[in-house]
Amino acid sequence: MHASCLIKFPPPILSPGLHSFLGILMLEISSPQGSTLAAVALIAAEDHNMCQQMHAAVVKSGAANVTSVSNALISVYVKCASSSLGMMPHSSSFLMCEARKLFDEMGERDELTWTTMIAGFVRNDDLISAQEFLDQMDDSLTVAWNALISGYVQHGSFYKALEMFRNMQALGMELDEFTYTGVLSACTNAGLLRHGTQVHAHILRTKMKPAPDFMLSVNNALLTFYWRAGKADQAQHLFESMPKRDLVSWNAVLSEYVKSGRINEAKKYFLMMPQKCVLSWTVMISGLAQNGYGEEGLKLFHQMKVEGYEPCDYAFAGAIISCSALGALKHGQQLHSQLVRLGFDGSLSVGNSLITMYARCGVVEAAKCLFLTMSSLDSVSWNAMIAALGQHGKGTDAIEMYEEMLREQIVPDRITFLTVLSACSHKGLVDEGQRYFDSMSASFGMIPGEDHYARMIDLLCRAGKFSEANRLIESMPIKPGIPIWEAMLAGCRVHGNMDLGIQAAERLFELRPEHDGTYILLSNMYATVGRWDDMAKVRNFMRERGVKKEPGCSWIEVDHMVHAFLVGDTKHPEITAVYEYLQELGPEIIKLGYVPDTQLVLHKIDTDQKEQVLSTHSEKLTVAFGLLKLPPSAPIRIFKNLRICGDCHKWMKLVSQFVKREIIVRDGRRFHHFTDGACSCGGYW
Length: 685
Fold this sequence. Notes:
RNA binding; zinc ion binding; six-stranded mixed sheet; repeat; PPR_At4g14850-like_plant; 35 helices; 67% helix; TPR-like_helical_dom_sf; Serine Threonine Protein Phosphatase 5, Tetratricopeptide repeat; mainly alpha
């Protein structure tokens, strides 16, 4: 029995145009032409039965021996096969067999016949057959070779694509823009710098005078190649020298500046663009959000809409990331509402961004609710949820989420283990963290990176297990860098381990002398044990190197506006009312046992002045403003750029007890939920 009898497709629903055409064929009113069939192929491309009906009609009409008609019919089979590749792979294979059978039965074949078959095999992931057909061709057709080069690139066979290009050169074949863009894509994806520059040299050597559009597409491919190879200067020079640029050129430059964190350059080129598209705006919005310019990202998102561009789901995701950074919950909720109305709520990228936004705005329950109701999840979704639970001190829940991920047969990646180890560190789960760290290599064949070692060092040191931490550092296959010594220093601060703390600080001074955090941590450690001379030396050392302490800044969202306060703030329009409220609150908090921790003030001033300094910390000002402005039942959510100090941490617990409200603080490390005089961190911060 012929293979065609083995597969039954659902009955077709004929469009009026296709029904009319088939009726004409069946009645043999006229002989079909290749051009007519090609047009109908667009209609029939989604309908498997139609391919066979058209084939039967062509045979009945007597036109099967006409080359142009057979070519069009082969094209119909190829298009149908491509459309069913993802959903019905067996039917795709069957349809390509039908195309090949038709090819074999043809009396005469032309260049289009061969090219259509080769391109069809490529589109249907059968590169072996495509190569077989190419090898059988009498003539070397550039378009056929280009199709196979493209196929090899799409399937990751980059060296095979490069070999094809070399063979084309050896045969003296004509190379066109698709040849060059195909081989450059192979060099880009495989990181073949030497080969890519050789291709560029070949282009220059030929001294061609091609049409501008030819060179435009090739130059765009070269731009991407040099950027991805880390050759920013060459890419920049090429861009500046291009006689013609299009949106692809501008977006390529914009995207690479954003990826490398060079936001000022990205802003410059964004403003210089003669025209923009949705992608241009999206790249810039996402870049601003991911590089700490959340407020600018939100402004640009609104400007995009004002200028008449309809944001795509990725633009919404970028704006949502901006809300995450700012802690702008109300603004994020507005965006959530908009994207639901626009039908973007099913977008995976948007859903993942919303999980992070709700978590980083202090509403981890909303993040989990969203996670549980999403129609589809990927590893990014699971990672975001595990990270959210860990940051909020729900380490046990984070571990359970990870175990559920494994039960769902989602393979963890390197980010997954970072989130799990962080969750263990935030909760002091040493044994669990060690087990997951070991499982990276034992169960999943992953080699832990420096960031994974740093998370493990952080976990061990915060638990006071310095001997184990030192042994782990000694076992590292790479030289310990900044993340390792930062984790060690932070743990030493918690437990007052001066000797190891000094060693870690010395390593950090060597590796990153301009960073203020190391000086501050070490001087605080000296102050804690009363080593004032050593503290003064660190401060002098800091001044000599021109290192300035980053000022503490806290902010809160009230009535859709973000209000920021600096330490000792005097410029906020309502700062007088804030200080007056703190004066009223002070005696009540003292009654509950608050004693200012003046040891944390490192200036040589009297005790009263030290207490005054502590009372003006930015997080205290921000909490007071929230208590004044938000409804009595609303939780106070504030955000801080640095780690919350010990004095403010103690003060927050007592304030939450006095005002009977939850105070949520996101500092530079984690979330703190203060309720009824206790904190969710359990002392791990």
